Write a sequence for this structure.
């Protein structure tokens, strides 16, 4: 049996995934989660073979979960299932050790096949997405991303500085650099462009 944890913040989608995957004779859903924090806890508690997770969830995203499990050197393999065919998401997923990347509009047979192949040690990514992943590299540094992510939430420079333990002038410099790199006029546009490309 391939033991699975499923993480998805939309209850109806989560229930559908759990039911469809449970129909397979070699798959067993041992736990479900509706956010990234629950997903990490479920992996720690159940030690599944594969975690199937969405990208965008409350709290920790699927990419955050992937990065944390990669840091922990967990044996659980990860499959991302998402509506977002963004090259930045895929690149970050691969860098975090994600083994599979499937779009939600793919047939369920493709997800089942991906889970089985990932469990067998393979890496499975839709070929069209794999090509898209290299169309444009993320020009921002991790720190510029951190600052821009908080700016996108509407925090003023002073709050961003306090949150990241930086000087306010340093925050302004990071924002200015990110705006310049993305070729936009302000922090709002920078956050929108970065998010659309899957870089935040």
């Amino acid at each position: 049996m391939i033991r699975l944890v499923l993480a998805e913040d939309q209850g109806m989608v989560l229930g559908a995934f759990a039911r469809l995957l449970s129909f397979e004779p070699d798959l067993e859903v041992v736990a479900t989660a509706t956010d990234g924090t629950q997903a990490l806890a479920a992996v720690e508690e159940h030690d599944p073979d594969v975690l199937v997770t969405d990208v965008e969830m409350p709290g920790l995203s699927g990419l955050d979960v992937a990065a944390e499990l990669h840091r922990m050197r967990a044996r659980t393999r990860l499959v991302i299932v998402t509506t977002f065919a963004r090259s930045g998401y895929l690149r970050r997923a691969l860098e975090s050790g994600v083994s599979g990347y499937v779009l939600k509009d793919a047939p369920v047979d493709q997800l089942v096949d991906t889970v089985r192949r990932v469990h067998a040690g393979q890496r499975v990514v839709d070929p069209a997405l794999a090509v898209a992943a290299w169309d444009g590299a993320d020009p921002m540094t991790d720190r510029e991303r951190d600052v821009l992510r908080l700016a996108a939430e509407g925090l003023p420079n002073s709050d961003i500085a306090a949150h990241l333990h930086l000087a306010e002038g340093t925050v302004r410099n990071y924002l200015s650099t990110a705006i310049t790199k993305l070729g936009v006029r302000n922090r709002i546009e920078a956050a929108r462009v970065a998010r659309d490309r899957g870089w935040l």
In short: The longest strand covers residues 27-33. Residues 168-182 form the longest helix (15 residues). The chain has two domains: 2-132, 142-196.
